[in-house]
Amino acid sequence: MKVSIQPSDLSGTIQAPASKSSMQRACAAALVAKGQTTVLNPGHSNDDKAALDIIQRLGATIEQKADAVVINSNGVNPVANEVNCGESGLSIRMFTPIVALSTQPVTITGQGSLVTRPMNFFDEILPQLNVNITSKEGKLPMQVNGPLVPKNIEVDGSLSSQFLTGLLLAYAASVQDNKLENDSVAITVNDLKSKPYVDLTLDVMKQFGLPVPENNNYEQFIFTKQQQNNTTERTYTVEGDWSGGAFLLVAGAVAGPIVVRGLSPASTQADKAILQALIDCNSGIAIDAKQINMHPGKLKAFEFDATDCPDLFPPLVALAAYCEGQTIIKGVSRLAHKESDRGITLQQEFAKMGLQIDLKDDIMVIHGGNGLNGAVVHSRHDHRIAMACAVAALKANGETVIEEAEAINKSYPDFYEHLQKLGATVDTGEKKIRFV
User: Fold this and answer.
1) H helix count then E strand count, the chain
2) Which residues are catalytic?
3) pTM
């Protein structure tokens, strides 16, 4: 699919998409917490659909309603011998320890770039928890056969916090089912990255009534035996997505004015940090509890540490392209194992539009403020690269064409439609939508 975008001025109000980080965690928590969960504001991205399919294969039943999803679960009781995580890195890392709670062997597969992403973590950790695992030299497909037995372990948190999220949920399920062998058990974590995502996991666990561990400065998470949770019905509302919303906010800073609703300033999502970058670059921004108002300003270069929020690199590059001077972003080492090697991908695709990006160890330097040229770019099958190029195209000189533009379906399938609604001239090759 090719999408063409003309230079455009934006105006209007838009609702941020549902957070797939929140939605996928809610699916996992609903499965292990048991009982009935009503999920409000559910997401419908490909990653969200993958999570729903996984929990159904692991024994949950799902009823889709107009504005909600109702999940019924009696715990992990697989009804299939294989689960497919699609292209979702969170799903593969979060659900693998949960799958391992089962006594029957289950094969875990994926698609696209997920089949090349390293999963050596599980080969090293799961055998310590009495789980048999086989993989393709640390890559998919994997087969796990539990049941997982929580024990004192030490894990490396430097690659992704998503591995820890899966272990926390699996340990919580075991505590809930009174399966701890001792009075307490601890997960010790070295060099944890993306701490805000762990905060989101712990918050979801709390809202679902799951046992929440003692958090010792993100270096150790201690579970203790406790009374079983008797909550059988609960309602969970999926937050607005700061990861997808970041692209809308940058679009407003570059080509607004627009109003973005549905993003909570009180959220634990890591990508809420986009607000600081928008403030630092002198964008026109006004924040309140219900909406964020964005309008263009005289943008200046800024410095930003994205180590704990690496998904912000693509929208930050689109923003920095229009900021006068050299913007410096730290955390490039976190980008190698995304849907693409995002540091190099951003450098190469934005070079087609005339933007110079230098990569120096863990630092990215963007030479902004010189304008961009419309060009033919490629998503590299990476949803965030497609959205970054689309936002950058809004004030480029001439038409920009994005190849393999359907990559956005992974996280934000309504993205191009939302740009159209705000007034952008976007041709998706389908019947054009006119909003007035």
Assistant:
1) 12, 24
2) 311
3) 0.91
